[in-house]
Amino acid sequence: MAQTDSQLIETFLTRGIEHVYPSKEIVKTWFLKGEPLTMYLGIDPTGPTLHLGHAIILRKMRHFQDMGHKIILLIGDFTGLIGDPTDKSATRVRQTKDQVFENAKLYKEQAAKIIRFDGDNPAELRYNSSWLAKLTFEELVELAAHFTVQQMLERDMFDKRLQEGRPIYLHEFFYPLMQGYDSVAMDVDGEIGGNDQIFNMLAGRTLLKEIKQKEKFVIGMKLLVDPTGKKMGKSEGNMITFKDSADEMFGKIMGWTDGMILPGFELLTSVSLEEIEVIRQDLENGKNPREVKAELARYVVSFFFDNHEAQTASDRFDKIFQKHEIPQDIQTLFGGGLVIELLEQAGFASSKSDARRLIKEQAVQIDGVVVSDIGAVIEPAQNGTILQKGKRFFVRIMP
Fold first, then answer.
1. What is the 3-state secondary structure (H, E, C) of 80-131?
2. Which of 46, 51, 114 lies closest to 241 in space, CA to CA?
3. DSSP letters of 344-389?
4. Residues 98 and 234 in one domain
């Protein structure tokens, strides 16, 4: 029997959740029956390591597992060959089988930091090539008959590409079809993912209902984004991976904008919603956001490491930050933007090419964190973000 505590179920279906299909009320009635349900999370191996965005959903998966339900971590080794077009303004570069295999090698080991693969009710690890690679062309045509081109074109990124005259390749339409078939092949009760995956997850709901006459719930979780709506990622220079050191994790979180503090507490910690409301009020009443952000950073680092590592990383960050001896009368720029442009505006670089060179030489920092991405963007914190060149040149970037 799975847990049927009403408040526990309410918390599961509310905290960090953007959408529940068919509805939160209906899904709650399924949970209250106490029958163990099966929910899966699919991850395409597009990189060699999991990142903080995965951790948010894996934490929710662990909650579901602890409630007595079954969870499946599905590695999209076949869908990874196609490439998910979600949120992409251009076609993804397709990966080879060798690249996909290499990327997926450590996923179970990394996911095991959060979900359990042993003991009672262990998580199951599966690969969707087990069924997708065996589909015949006749079966693929039969699956495709469940969807229309109009349905596919409803996706924002496809519509935008059409408007801009960018190509949409036929194989990209296959992606939601393939992800949808995963639900049929595994005969699951539910699927969870980021709210940017809702279209794909609902495709699975459609196929499961039409092929097996079975209802499937879909949970779309909130994404941890900056105030402009951008997800953390390589292009923003703030992606936190499971392979990062405690110091790297701490420093990257300290580089987040103030607007990411409260969502970070909701999505990445077990701090109660009541406590988070107190934090919100403290910030509104003038508490230094840097102190609150450091508290959040310690929570996250301790989750991946331990309390000692978290405090050590915090102390080390403070020492490094203080050693910079930032002058009180440094120049100020307003508005944020691309780091290469801000370096030029501040007079730290003679041109954008010079700014790129500085970044490649690791001579540029944002709030004490080395910038490694040429396309990095600064969205200034409320009390300002420090952009630094070398050891002696500082500029405060204000909103």
1. HHHCCCCCCCCCCCCCCHHHHHHHHCCHHHHHCCCCCCCCCCCCEEEECHHH
2. 51
3. HHTTS-SSHHHHHHHHHTT-EEETTEE---TT-EE---TT-EEEEE
4. no
- CB-CB contact of 89 with 160 (8 Å): yes
**Which residue intervals of 243-338 are DSSP H helices?**
246-254, 261-268, 273-284, 289-304, 307-323
User: What is the per-residue burial (b if ≥16 Cβ within 10 Å, else e) of 268-291?
Assistant: bbeeeeeebeebeeebeeeeebee
Q: Is residue 75 domain-shared with residue 183, that is, in the same domain? A: yes
**CA torsion, ordered 189, 195, 201, 203, to nearest 10 deg:** 140
pLDDT of residue 392: 67
Q: Which residues contact 260 (CB under 8 A, 6 or more apart)?
A: 224, 225, 226, 227
Phi and psi torsions of 190, nearest 5°: -160, 165
For residue 360, count other CB atoms closer than 10 A to its CB.
11
Question: Which of 192, 221, 250 delimits the end of a domain?
Answer: 221
**Which parts of the chain register pLDDT below 50?**
88-91, 235
Residue 369's DSSP bridge partners are 366
H-run or E-run covering 393:
strand 393-398
Q: What is the CATH number of the domain that holds 393?
A: 3.10.290.10
Tokens found for residue 372: 């490694």
Q: What is the pLDDT of residue 326?
A: 64
- Selection from 110, 103, 107, 143 nearest residue 126 by Cα: 107
| pTM, entire model | 0.77
Q: For 215-231, b where at least 16 C-beta lie within 10 A, e where not — what string?
A: ebbbbbbbbbbbeeeeb
With H, G, I as helix, E, B as strand and everything else as coil, classify residue 73.
strand
Instruction: Identify whether residues 56 and 145 lie together within a single domain.
Output: yes
* Burial of 206 per CB tally in 10 Å (0-12, 13-18, 19+): middle
| pLDDT given at position 38 | 98
Domain annotation covers residue 186: yes
Closest CA to 49 of 102, 93, 88: 102
Which two tokens mark 192?
A: 């969870």
Residue 388, strand partner residues: 365, 394
Of the candidates 201, 194, 281, the one whose C-alpha atom is nearest the C-alpha of residue 231 is 194
Q: 285 and 163 in one domain?
A: no
Tell me: do 194 and 46 sit in the same domain.
yes
Domain that holds residue 296: 226-323
The DSSP 8-state label assigned to residue 57 in this structure reads: H
Domain check: are 105 and 163 in the same one? Answer: yes
